[in-house]
Specification:
The complex is a heterodimer of chains A (110) and B (116). Chain A has 110 residues and is mostly beta strands. Chain A has a single domain (4-109), classed as Sandwich (Immunoglobulin-like). Chain A contains no helices and eleven strands. Chain A has strands spanning 4-6, 9-13, 18-23, 28-36, 43-48, 53-57, 60-65, 70-75, 84-92, 99-100, 104-109. In chain A, the strands form two sheets. In chain A, strands 2, 4, 5, 9, 10 and 11 form a six-stranded mixed β-sheet that branches. In chain A, strands 1-3-8-7-6 form a five-stranded antiparallel β-sheet, with no helix packed on it. In chain A, strand 9 and strand 10 (99-100) form a beta hairpin. Chain A starts with a strand and ends with a strand. By secondary structure, chain B is mainly beta. Chain B has one domain: Immunoglobulins (Immunoglobulin-like). In chain B, strands 2, 4, 5, 6, 9, 10 and 11 form a seven-stranded mixed β-sheet that branches. Chain B is globular and about 40 Å long. The relative contact order of chain B is 0.32. Classes of the chains: A mainly beta (110), B mainly beta (116). The A-B interface holds A 2, 29-30, 32, 34, 40-44, 47, 49, 87, 89, 91, 95-103 and B 4, 31, 33, 35, 41-45, 48, 50, 55-56, 91, 100-110.
């Protein structure tokens, strides 16, 4: 079952912050985050493996609450290059496949 | 090669034609995945290989879809008797195997299929 992301779309001014949420109805082993720019392939941002784990990538970080089966992606001091569609990918316990979420379209304006 | 390579990048087929889409994964990557991405949607899982073994094909929409990876490297996704609803971008991704979880996926540029 496809994880649900919220919000569906975000519009930001450069320098503003945003949070994107990902929620699954299944027990999860890991959560991945990817960014896809229009007409391009999805690009890996990070993997989170443990409950409560938080990881960072420049000014982009994420948390994973294993008990709630939720993950959040935090974008701070957004840059124009952050524009794109963000997908979470969830991996259920006992499987090796990644199921992608509904996507969140982020637009950053000067 | 340096990255995942897919061909053709664009394919226009008449309804009822058969198509074959090729994926060349990163050398040494054991896992290979196919996803279907409709316009404005997230990638939807189709099938997954570990070496030449197809471990999961639960996402293939119908028996018109067939995937193979006979030598554990290059993979081909074949769609028989194409229908308009097959129009989408078909993404291939490869990954190093991890004992614990699906590793980082490296995606190709995709093959955009348009069925008229």
């Amino acid at each position: 079952q496809q994880p649900v992301q919220s919000p569906q779309a975000v519009i930001l001014r450069e320098g503003e912050d945003a949070v994107i949420n990902c929620s699954s109805s299944k027990a999860l082993y890991s959560v991945h985050w990817y960014r896809q720019k229009h007409g391009e392939a999805p690009v890996f941002l990070m993997i989170l493996l443990k409950g409560g784990e938080q990881k960072g990538h420049e000014k982009i970080s994420a948390s994973f609450n294993e008990k709630k089966q939720q993950s959040s992606l935090y974008l701070t001091a957004s840059q124009l290059s952050y524009s794109g569609t963000y997908f979470c990918g969830t991996e259920k316990i006992g499987t090796d496949k990644l199921i992608f979420g509904t996507g969140t379209r982020l637009q950053v304006f000067p | 090669g340096a990255g995942v390579s897919q061909s053709p990048r664009y394919k226009v087929a008449k309804r009822g034609q058969d198509v074959a889409l090729r994926c060349d994964p990163i050398s040494g990557h054991v896992s290979l995945f196919w996803y279907q991405q409709a316009l404005g949607q997230g990638p939807e899982f189709l099938t997954y290989f570990q070496n030449e073994a197809q471990l999961d094909k639960s996402g293939l929409p119908s028996d018109r879809f067939f995937a193979e990876r006979p030598e554990g490297s290059v993979s081909t996704l074949k769609i028989q008797r194409t229908q308009q609803e097959d129009s989408a971008v078909y993404l291939c991704a490869s990954s190093l195997v991890s004992d614990r979880n699906t590793g980082e996926l490296f995606f190709g540029e995709g093959s955009r299929l348009t069925v008229l």
